[in-house]
Amino acid sequence: MEADKRRAKFHYGWVVLAVTFVTLLVSAGIRSMPSLFMLPFEKDFGWSRGGISSVVSIGIFLYGLAGPFSAAVLLKFGIRRVTVASLGTLAAGLTATPWMQALWQFEILWGVVSGLATGMMANVLGVTVANQWFVKRKGLVVGVLTASAATGQLLFLPMLAGITVQSGWRTSVYTAVAVIVALMVLVAVFMRNHPYEIGAAPYGSEEKTKPAAFQGDIFAAPLLALGEGLKNKTFWLLAGTFFFCGFSTNGLIGTHLIPACGDYGIMEVTAASLLAFMGIFDLFGTTFSGWLSDRFDSRWLLFWYYGLRGLSLLYLPYALGSGPLNLIVFSVFYGLDWIATVPPTVKLATQEFGKEKSGMIFGWVVVAHQIGASVAAYSAGAMRQWLGSYTVPFMAAGIVCLFASLMAIRISKTGAALRRAEA
Fold it and tell me: Is the pTM of this model over 0.90?
């Protein structure tokens, strides 16, 4: 009897959350692999730092561009089917990677195929799962799923860096393919699209409602959402702050910290461990950020997040040249804030545009994030090639983060969707 009660209390949304967490974790780990291969590719193929960075830049941009359309595709075709198809595409692209011989082939496999495939499993997937399966604790759920990106680095980068050093980058690629294939089976067996499929209500609700059929064209609907967003001041502020967010995280640190450490004689495995160390603290920081966004003004959370990140980036050039202790201090300070900006940004987008449109609107905000990341990925590599160091891009990123913190407090305190509901 007690066992039946416990089963009745358990909500399947937590299983969907766990499967989504692992999916985003693996996707993030795969997306971070080019930073490990930058130095080996320079050695094996003779490609320049700028050329390799351009591939990363294209991949980051398409990763973001897929977001708004993935929101529509997920709603139309279902979370499970789209996720399995995306993982299969990613596995196919990785399998072909060891056979490439020219930079243009790297562009196609990692710039286009990997960028679009992982883009279908980006933050928009987490937002869609949260909206479909949860009414209560939604901020916490978004925080947990966002933190999975950092956890992906935590689990994969040091392991893949060790494999790369010991057995070569091709072995690392095949290891990643094996993980993806196992994940495809996990998603196919346990993922569900909506609580209604299993006769349940979303967590925090008693109402078992059949999901509304997706209306409109999967290409036109995101563009219409963008048109609405472009007329809205809050959208511009969210997109602008997220541009600087991408500029200062995966585009810069995620792509260039390992080669920047190499400039100071720090080994790849050690540098990858620094990123993993950041991942540990971001797992806590971003999850805690989700909890905070359920309770406090998200505008002021963003103010502090961007401001503190800016200060940490201004400190980084000093930390690189002054020993391991200062790099550890940077990793802790920066790691707590790596992607803590996502939960409050999602909440502000939902407040302004409503639950139905929030996935596509946030998808376009993520496009701005990835444009910023793309700019940083290429420009930092080019500046390193021209100037011989990463000091200028690191300092520039710190300054724009301080500017983003001021932009955040200009966002409307009460969103349009809430104002309409109160009227």
Answer: no
